[in-house]
Amino acid sequence: MSDYDTVSADVEHEEEIPADHPRYQDLLTRHRIETGIEKGITHLQGMHAEGRGSAFDYLLGEETIPSADGAERAAAAHLLLADQPVLSINGNVAALVPGEMVDLASAVDADLEVNLFNRTPERVKAIAEHLREHGADEVKGLTADARIPKLDHQRAKVDADGIYAADVVLVPLEDGDRAEALQEMDKTEIVIDLNPLSRSPQVAAVPIVDNIIRAVPNMTEHARDLADADEAELRSIVDEFDREQALEEAEARIRNGL
């Protein structure tokens, strides 16, 4: 029996997962989602969503393909050019990449805002506290004094000085109708989604077809590399990015491995 066969299904700490396991990233995301549910951060429905994403990631080869890396670089440039960038945080994002989102926010001088489909005051506060435990100074989303037009339900609630006023918004793992509603508000929308055919990446200015646990750290690395770039260089990166090509290349990798 190999060491891989002895990995327990009931891992208490992610350090117990061997880093050289062939499905390490998948095991890591599963564990973080399960922990998020136990902490009241992630809704049970988030586990089902993560399962769907895991299937697409497997077809992508569980790696950041070149088109995704290009999208992540373009996303970093957009965030650095923004007047008021905001990173949206839902339950899965908070469970999977809390510290990484804090690092990205610091690298591009963006706000963090909690926005939930299954919204309760307790969950919003739990996620905000979770982000603070991972280094966040300020977390928006608790005020919820504005609404996204043409969108019903609790996830329409946003902070007036946060997502509502933002010019560039990163919305990872987002529902398609909310992505469409944000687009109609003329915001530059960056979406992270493992399914290139879903509505969210289809309407995004920058669709990133990648696993969020790879995408966010990669965006931060690009942002730090571009920290001293002038506006002309950043706009060149933004203008050269081809969203349709990025989606086509992601679909091709999923369909036939090319």
TrEMBL record:
Pathway: Cofactor biosynthesis; coenzyme A biosynthesis
InterPro entries in the cross-refs: PPS/PS (IPR002855), PPS/PS_sf (IPR038138)
Single GO biological process annotation from the record: coenzyme A biosynthetic process
Annotated binding of ATP, by residue: 30, 52, 193-195, 199-200, 211-212
Coiled-coil intervals: none
PANTHER family: 4-PHOSPHOPANTOATE--BETA-ALANINE LIGASE
Annotated function: Catalyzes the condensation of (R)-4-phosphopantoate and beta-alanine to 4'-phosphopantothenate in the CoA biosynthesis pathway.
Protein name: 4-phosphopantoate--beta-alanine ligase
